[in-house]
Design a protein that fits this description.
Radius of gyration: 16 Å
Strand content: 5-15%
Number of domains: 1
Order of helices and strands: EHEHHH
Oligomer: single chain
Helix content: 40-55%
Distance between the termini: 29 Å
Number of strands: 2
Shape: globular
C-alpha cells in the first residue's frame, strides 16, 4: 500500500482501522504530499486511500479503479480564514461549491 505519513490524521485513522480488522498492509511508500502519493498509485505501484468524494473522478480515469470502500475511516477538511465571518465573494463561492459538489 501507498500511505500518507504517520504524522497525519488520516494515517492514524487508517492504522487504527487496519489494526481493528487484523490487517497488516505491506507499506511500499509513505508520502507527505498527497499528489505524489496519487501519482505513484496511478503508475500501478500499489493501492492507496482516497476520500470517497473523489470516487466519481476516479471512475472516469482508466489508470485507476476503486477496489473497496469503508465508512469506518473518516477525515476532515478545513477552510481557514483570518476573518471570523466569511465575507469575500470568492471565498463564499468556493465554500458554496464545495458543499454542493463534494458533499452531496
Amino acid at each position: 500500500m501507498l500511505l500518507p505519513t504517520d504524522n497525519t490524521a488520516l494515517r492514524r485513522n487508517l492504522d487504527f482501522w487496519f489494526e481493528s480488522k487484523g490487517i497488516r498492509p505491506r507499506v511500499l511508500g509513505e508520502f507527505e504530499d498527497f499528489a505524489l502519493l496519487r501519482a505513484f498509485g496511478e503508475t500501478g505501484t500499489g493501492l492507496f486511500p482516497l476520500p470517497s468524494v473523489v470516487g466519481p473522478q476516479i471512475r472516469q480515469q482508466k489508470a485507476l479503479r476503486v477496489v473497496g470502500a469503508t465508512t469506518e475511516v473518516r477525515t476532515q477538511f478545513y477552510a481557514i480564514s483570518a476573518e471570523r465571518k466569511l465575507q469575500h465573494p470568492a471565498v463564499l463561492a468556493i465554500r458554496t461549491a464545495a458543499r454542493q459538489e463534494l458533499f452531496k
